[in-house]
Structure formats: structure tokens, C-alpha cells
Amino acid sequence: MADTMQRPGLSIDTDLPRQGETRAKPNVAPSGFLERASKMLSAHLNAAADDDDKKDGSPTSELTSPTWGNTIIKEPFQDMDMLENGHAREYLAEECLSPTQSKSWTYSTVERTNKNQYKMYWNNDQFLLSAKQVGGTFYISQYENFPESGEADEPTGHYCAVLRKATDHNFKLYSCGCEGCDQSFSTYTCSNINEDAAATAVEGADRQLLADISHFTKAAGVVGSEMRCFSVVIPAIMDDKRSRVVWCPRVSRGVTTSGGTPRGTPSCQLMTSPSPRNKNQHIFTFDTPTSDRIKIGSKLPVWCPEVNSLMLKFHGGRIREASAKNFMLMLDEEPVGAQLSAVPDPTGNNRVVMQFGKFSKSKFALDFRFPLAPIQAFAIGLSSCAWNVKPLAT
Predict the structure, then answer these.
(1) Is 199 a member of any domain?
(2) Which residues in the chain belong to E strands, given as ranges?
(3) Which pLDDT belongs to residue 108?
(4) Quick check: 332 and 295 in contact, CB under 8 A?
(5) N or C: which terminal CB in the chain sees fewer CB atoms within 10 Å?
(6) Is 127 in the same domain as 52?
(7) Contacts of 377 (CB under 8 A, 6+ apart)
(8) What are the pLDDT digits (tens) for 92-119?
(9) Is the backbone peptide bond immediately before 8 cis, with ω within 30 degrees of 0?
């Protein structure tokens, strides 16, 4: 009999001794067929027994991933089964999805490797995220290299988030998973697979919404001077500094505008990702109605007569070249759970949460802090790179 290593739900058949037996007895039918058939039958019966156990009320906590922040129920060896069936998905890690733990700055670099691919690195050159632009869409992955495909071809499922151009002046960042309702093997998922391409662009069929990014121009300084501005909306962060409001299109379908973002009516209860203090807590309750979003806008430059130009004072000296893509973002108001500073801040410098600017020919400095997460900061920077300024009609 073949050497077999077994554990529940998995068997590995080396098939080595049987090959020798087959050569020695060429006229005898190989025993591997019956052996494999018995294993398949045994696996089927074990699976049925497991289902019966679940119906008897056995706890399902053993099947849940022990990592907080992930509500996806995983069966044993589910990832391998999904690979075999062509249903593999890439889910965002907490490192990319959670905001920084303090208000200290996080330094990173975005490198444009070719005309449609970008990579994000920590300040120590450690890789974090990559993105591939196909038309008006950026496919974001936690793998450094996308599978081989044409420059104009979208990746085949190997990405964890999508930055989609919803309109000429608006981008939306969607996760490929959902912390609100995702289950194993696409069961009870919020993905709107039956919607057509036009509906997908406006109704958020790409699952959980992580950021809504709008572009506009605004007069600044002297007459005739314009700057490119941002209006960014992200889900609110709770007072534990980690739990975030979940914008799930299935849950918020009734309060979703045509643009795909929930209207944001203040509520006393907000559905969030699991709390690090209590993995089973998905609802935060407040005494008064609380907003489900954080609003972030552009910090306007100041006209400098010495150089006859608009100027922004970037910190750290990391932004070294002038570019229309350089910008700073600041909080419109303090988020939920934030500690208000007792020191007056008329310039708004204490509320600056992100700066993005040209470092060299193909590199950009991307610095951010709480409440932005790495994936959100990366998406905002990518939308700036895709901002094409059209000349005024004459």
C-alpha cells in the first residue's frame, strides 16, 4: 500500500511504492484507483458528519479566523479549495486597512515604474502596495508584481481593492472584501454581480466603500490663479482608534445616493469593523447622533510675492520639486474620539493629515497620519496622478 500522510480533511499520496509494484506486475490492475475512491468517499462522509455537527449547535467560533478585524468565516483549507475552484480572492491586511496608532507622521514613497503601474514603499524601502491603471481604474494589490498581462488588460482577480473613476471628477475606493457581511465562498456577500457596467460605476458594486475622493479647482491668490483641490470622505474611526464604520452597499442600500456613498445621516448606532478590545463587537452606541464619516479637504496655498507664485509649506523637506500634483490635506473637523488641542491653530497646521509631492522624476513622497489608513492615502495619491487638467475652451 502506498505511503500516506493523513490529517483531518487532507491526504497526501506519495504513490512511490505502487509504481514499483505496477512495474513488477504489469498485468494486474493498479490498486490506486480503489484507494483514491475510498479516500474520496471517506472525505465526503466526513464533510457530511461535520455539517451534522454544525446543525447540532456546536460552536462556530473555532472556524473563525483568530485575527481581529476579519469577519470572514473560513472553513478548514478553504483558501486551497478556492484556488482549485478558481474563486480565490485577495483580502486587505490590517496593516493596510487600519489607520496609524498615533498622530505622528508615517513616511512612505510612491514610485511610478512605468506609465500605468505604481508601487508604495515604507520609508525603509519595504514594499507595501502596488497599483495598475487600466483606463480610469486602478487595481491595487498587496503583491509587488501583478501576473503577466497586457498593459491595457485588467488583472484576473489578483487585487485587494479598486480605485474606480465614477465621474470625471470623482474616484471611489472599494475593498474586494466586506467586513460587514462577507462569508465563505461568496455566500451572503454584498457584491452586486448582476449589475451592468454602468450601474457598477455609480452604485458601488465593488463591495465595501473605503473612500470617496472628489476633485475640483478653486481660485487662489491673485486673479487667474487656480489650484487643484480635493474633497475626501472616509468612514469614521471610533474612539478605540482602530474600529472603522463599515460602508457596505448591501446594508446601506436604502440610504445610498446615486453616487454610491451613504448619505451620512447622524445615528446613535454605527456598524463597524470588530473592535480590538472586543472581537465580537460590531456596533458602537452613542448618547447623541454621531456622524459616520470624516471629511478631509485641501489646505490652500498662500500667495508669495517674492516668487510671484502660490506656495505651500511642506514639512520634512521630502518634497523637492515643484509640480501641479503637490498638495496637502487637512481635517475639516476633528473626528470621533479625537482629543482637541488646547493650543489655537489659526493656520490649520495641526489638522494637516497628508502631504503628497514630487520627490524626483518618477518618485513621490507620501506622508500621512491618523485617521488615514495606508490604502486610503495611496488611493488619494493615485487619483492625483490620474488628474488630467483640460485646457479651457476658447
Answers:
(1) yes
(2) 4-7, 10-13, 106-114, 117-122, 127-134, 137-141, 161-167, 170-175, 209-219, 226-235, 267-271, 283-290, 293-298, 302-304, 309-311, 327-331, 352-358, 363-368
(3) 94
(4) yes
(5) C
(6) no
(7) 108, 354, 366, 368
(8) 888 888 888 777 899 999 999 888 899 9
(9) no
Q: What is the rounded CA–CA span in Å between residue 33 and residue 278? A: 50
Q: Which three cell numbers stand for residue 194?
A: 448582476
Q: Are residues 175 and 231 in the same domain?
A: yes
Given a contact cutoff of 8 angstroms between Cβ atoms, the answer to whether 209 and 203 are in contact is no
Tell me if 77 is assigned to some domain. no
Plot region of 68 (φ>0 → left; ψ -120 to 50 → alpha; else → beta) = beta
Q: Which domain holds residue 7?
A: 1-24+31-58
Pair 45, 141 in one domain: no
72: closest CA among 197, 184, 190, 207?
184
Strand, coil or helix: what is 316? Answer: coil
CA distance readout (Å), 286 to 27, 181, 336, 371, 389: 78, 23, 11, 20, 43
Amino acid letter, 113: T
- 327 plus 178 within the same structural domain: yes
Tell me, rounded to whole angstroms, the distance of Cα 180 from its chain centroid. 14
**186 and 126 within one domain:** yes
Q: Examine the domain organization and report whether 129 and 234 are in the same domain.
A: yes
pTM above 0.90, yes or no: no
Counting Cα atoms < 13 Å in the Cβ hemisphere of 375 gives 29
Question: Which letter does DSSP use for residue 256 in this model?
Answer: B
Amino acid occupying residue 346: P
Q: Which three-class secondary structure state does DSSP give residue 375? A: helix
Cell of 273: 469593523
Task: Please give the single-letter amino acid code of residue 99.
Answer: P
Our count of domains for the chain comes to 2
Q: Check residue 70 and give its pLDDT.
A: 34
Answer whether residue 394 is part of any domain: no
